[in-house]
Design brief:
Layout: H1 2-27, H2 31-60
Helix pairs in contact: 1-2
Amino acid sequence: MFYIFIIYALIILFIFNSLTHKFCTKLEMNQNKQASVFRVINIMMLILLVSSYVKVLNSMI
């Protein structure tokens, strides 16, 4: 179960990072602003993925 969720998380992070990259290029952001946007989105996505993993793990018990 753990390995399946890791693969799922990597796919989700890749999709969101590609969407964020397209968003930043469309708005023509500078590099400093892009770095902060990527950092915030990746941290939020990691929090959501960890909390969903804990929820799935608790529902299996």
